[in-house]
Amino acid sequence: MKELLKKVIDGEVESIDITMTPICEIEDLLKSNFGAEDLELMGDETNGWQVDFWYYFELPEGRFMLSGSLHYGNFKFSKVKE
Fold first, then answer.
1. What pTM was estimated for this model as a whole?
2. Cα 41 to chain center, whole Å?
3. CB neighbours of 82 closer than 8 A, spacing ≥ 6?
4. Tens place of pLDDT for every residue, the chain, 82 residues?
5. Which of 53, 50, 44 lies closest to 26 in space, CA to CA?
6. DSSP letter string over the chain?
């Protein structure tokens, strides 16, 4: 997964799809390998059984977002366009 995250951070690809993974593992990778600051929860939505989320990370290369659903997965990591 580290290599996939690096592709987005380096600008090789605009975004990547990530298989459902504990968010804390992704956060740890971003902090320990890429210098990310603490994640910022910008919003989550719940309808009683599903939680959609948008987490933002500040890295030296810019602002990035991890989004997805805690029920369906569909995790996506992308650079936030200014």
1. 0.85
2. 11
3. 62, 63
4. 999 999 999 999 999 999 999 989 999 999 999 999 877 766 666 666 678 888 899 999 999 999 998 888 899 999 998 7
5. 53
6. -HHHHHHHHTTSSSEEEE-S--HHHHHHHHHHHH-PPPPEEEEEEESSS-EEEEEEEEETTEEEEEEEETTTEEEEEEEPP-
